[in-house]
Every structure is written in structure tokens, then in C-alpha cells.
Amino acid sequence: MTVTSDPFAPGFVERPYWWDAAPPTIDTAPPLPDQIEVAIIGGGIAGLATALELGRNGTKSLVMDREMIGWGASSRNGGALAGAGSLGKMRSDLGDVLGKKFLQELAEESEGAFESFEALVAREGLDCDFVRCGRFTGAHAEKSMDALKRRAEMINSAAGEQAFLVPKDRVAEEIATDRYVGGMVLHRAGSLHPGKYVRSLGRAAERYGATLAGGTEVLSYRREADGGFVIETSRGRLKAKHLMVASNGYTGKATPWHRRRLIPVASYMIATEELGEERVRQALPKLRVYGDTKKVLYYFRPSPDHRRILFGGRASFVDADTRRSGARLHQFLTDLIPDLEGTKVTHSWKGNVAFAFDMIPHVGVEDGVHYALACNGSGVTTMTHFGTVAAQQILGGSNRVSAYARIPFPTKPFYNGTPWFLPVVGMSYQLRDRLDGWRLRDRKG
């Protein structure tokens, strides 16, 4: 595919589109307490959801982040969310790996997490542009329809008739492309404004007594004889009865056990210029959230006001600058939806997501340290739910232990948290997509 025109609009910025309306809070760096009941590392969705649930139960917490609160992937992601649909997206052989009965338990918990998310938004009055819009997943190859069929069966078994397959001759009802050979629609799925969500979640946590301390890097910690923790930060030392790790794709050397179990991967996004709702509807008639089955997948959606298209994917498996990745994503977008040829890009950005080696999200406790990690690219619902699960663990447990907390959190020998192998994995994924028949069309612009 050859593109000669400049894809960038006048005033183009290398910054998340979401930050126009809801930039991360520039924290006033409140004084750190000498002691706190719960110290939380990571000021994104998981950490804030943990603090919120703790506060609702009368327990004070301190949320620390080396950047501004909400600066990471929590305010950079695509803003798509689902229940068991996200679980099925992670890997297609979970039933074989975990057993069908346990997979059913995971699916039911994931569906319940979506319902709980909706209840949280309503209960706390979170201003985040949330709407149930459904999700369309495009099949990039004929064999992918079999995987989507299995995914639909899993979802429907856990949640009733929520998913259905779309044959090739009806794909145009969902998206203006001829690149997909079919697809799946999931009804129980939605979208939100991630910048607004993480900001509202933080404000809700503060209302319940949490202290949010951006610009506070945790340097190290040690466990005391009484089971508590002494924590060294860039702003001083404090003691905590409980410690929680919720740093996900930005997990650092202060928590080496967790870092060895996470693969940080950069994900890239762009926002088009304002196209107007009519043109957006021509491209995406149902105004859903969208993804596909490729190894190097695309994810995209309309903006909350339906005037732009936001498009994301793995534009690079090395750390690319966002101008170059923005041009690449624009190629992907116009190849997928040719009617968008000639549109311009106003925003381009990236953020780290964290994958586990088993491609499953993990919540639990290790050596007294609680954690909620590895969203695997589908974190809004999962990490909100895991924050609640972690808080209940800290508070003394709930009536039912999360199925996710019963899955071992694996690593690999000699892995230290630096994913040197990603370029090789990326080349493998690209080759597999090409073998499946997916190539960029050769169009000149």
C-alpha cells in the first residue's frame, strides 16, 4: 500500500484525544502520612477501584503513582468494555487449558463484572459517557468464524442469548468494509470516555477518604515481622498494614515478583478530524465498538459525540514515536474502510498494556502483597472488578473467592520484565495474518 499524502491535520498533536476533555490531574502532592491502612501502587483504574471499595467500607488508603493520577493506559485506552466477551478475546483455547467447567465459572464472573460496572457508574454518578452499544468483532479469515462460534457459545452459556454470528453478506450492516468474511455481535458491551472515567473514579475514591498522590514513585518496600510494610518512596518513608500492586503495564523494579510476570506492550491509537455524524454512521452504521480476530488486531469506535473515528492497534512491536505510528494506523484505517481515504489525523498517542504469559488477567496475593494485573488489552471492566476483589481480600474476604484468584500467575525462566522478544513475536504474528490472507491493499493516495 502506497500513501503519498500527509495524513496529519493542521494542529495535529501527539497526545491522547481523551485528554482534551479530561487531562490527568496535576496533583498537589499532598503530604504523605507516616502510616496508612492500605498503600496502593498505581493510580489507574485498578488502584482507584480498590481505594473506592476500601473507602466504602471505612478503610483509608493511599494511592501512589510516579506520574499523575490516571496518566497511564487507564486514560489512553479505546474505552470499549464487555464481560465474558473480553475473556474470549484473550485466547481461544481457554476451555482446553482450564477445563470447561472452570471456564464457565470465569465467564459467569466476567458477565457479573459487567453488570456490577453498570451499577457502579449509576451508584456513584460517574461522568464518563458510558453507553451500552454492543460490539462487533470482524473475522479476518474463514477459519476465524469457527473461533467466533466457540466464543459466542461460551458467552451465551454464561449470559443467555447475548452473542450472534454475522455472515459475510450482512457485514455491511455493521461496518463499511469488504475485508471481513463475517463476524460476531455481542449485545452486552459498551463504550465510555476513559479520561472522564478514571477522573470520576478518582474523585469518588477521594469522597470516601482515599488520598491520591501523583508524582510519588515507590522505590522499594520490605515486610515487617508484624506483617505490615515499610515503603520507601521518592517523597519519603511510610508504613502500611497492607500493600497493593496495581501498576499493570508500568510495573517497575520496586516490585520484581510482579514485573517478572508481566509483558508490557505499547498499543497505539489515533483520532480522525471531525467527520460529522452522518459520515461516521456511513462507516460504522450501528455506532458500536469494534475489533477483529487478527493476531495484529485492530480496535476502533466512534467518538462519544459520534463526530470522529478513533482507531487503534499494534502499529509497531518496538517503541515507535507516535507520529510514525499515527501514519501507520491511518494506513490501516483507510485500507479497512476505503471511504475514509483523504481523512486527516488530529491526535496520535500510545500507552502500555500488560499481558500475562498465559494471556489471563490475574488478581490475588503473594507473600502478603495484593495485586490486580495483566488486563491483556481489555482492562476497563476487568480492572474495575479486580479492584473490588482486591479490596474485599484486604478487608478479610468475601462469600465467594474470585475464580481469577485461583489461577497461578506464571513467569518464564530468566525473564526480568524486559520483553526483548517482542519484535520476533510481532514478525510471527504478521506472518500468521498474511498466511491467513490478510494484506494491505495496494492503493495510491
TrEMBL record:
The keyword Glycoprotein does not apply. Keywords: Oxidoreductase. Gene3D superfamilies: D-Amino Acid Oxidase, subunit A, domain 2, FAD/NAD(P)-binding domain. The keyword Oxidoreductase applies. Residues 38-392 form the FAD dependent oxidoreductase domain. Signal peptide: none annotated. InterPro entries: FAD-dep_OxRdtase, FAD/NAD-bd_sf. It holds the Pfam family DAO. This is FAD-binding oxidoreductase. It comes from Roseococcus pinisoli. The lineage of its organism: Bacteria, Pseudomonadati, Pseudomonadota, Alphaproteobacteria, Acetobacterales.
